[in-house]
Amino acid sequence: MATTYELISSVTVGSGGAASMSFTSIPATYTDLSLFISSRDTAPSQATDNFKIYFNSANSNRSMKTALGRAELGTVQTFGTSNSQTGYTDASTALASTFGNALYYIPNYRVAQQKSFGGDSIQEDNVSATQFGIDACLWNSTSAITSITIEPNYASQTFVQYTTAYLYGISNA
Amino acid sequence: MPSTYEKIATTTLGSATATVTLSSIPATYTDLVLISSVLGTTGVTSNVMAYVNSDTATNYSTTYFYADGGSAGSGRSSNASRIFLGQLISYAETNKPVFCMTHFQGYSNTTTYKTIFSRGNSPTTDVDMMVGMWRSTSAITSITIRFDVGNLQSGSTFTVYGIKAA
Which residues contact A13 (CB under 8 A, 6 or more apart)? Predict the structure, then answer.
């Protein structure tokens, strides 16, 4: 029986912060990938930022549809983006010691099809202006995914210490 | 530590077909997770659907939520012959799969109706979330996936995993 949800690699940001988190040399031995992120970044004067996820160092050909829960508005919003944000993270003015959480599942990462994947992310800091995203994502490429990069959407910002990302492999062999 | 997320059955379509059935699901797990990556026909509006144990009677209900980038909404179906897994208002495209992750909680118990939760991801059109119910106390032993319109196309993949709580 194949091992599933096997840890491929993890990243924990150190005291100096990090402009991005990357998983490289992802082995071609699994069927699917799953990415768990706990993050906070330095985006100034705001409690919420987004992070972006892209593959094979190609921050292009990405698109997504999102359902966004914003408690202070009392409604669900929806929008589509291209080559921009993916999920939500806590940022500089969020309650201290709070981190956003996100989970993405990437099926058939080696198959020569466009890469359709999905996930959920939350930014929560005990105030009303919190955000919850439900994302359907596409990388319009048939290349096998060999690396994953996660970085703040706000330009020139960094993930803070204790931000983590875990990448798991799932096999149906 | 019990084994969890064990593959029970998997299939990759080599040609177009109307339905795919993952069968002989043992009752030895606590929950099931179905991972579907579904290719359709460009321009054909369709939904990814499922029924279990070959039961196509009107024993299913679904409440769903969708968001397509322009509007978000919710709806439901009652006394239906299958449940939605994803792709509620949009269409699958050749080489651009719809990805659905579906959980069948307590699938093997023989005392309660079965609750099913699914997330559908169709990145060019919408994101979906739905909860369904199969009004039967039978254990689920097979899952059949289909579109409501058109065939599942070659290259579609379906895998069911078992999850153990003990």
Answer: A21, A159, A160, A161, A162, A163, A164
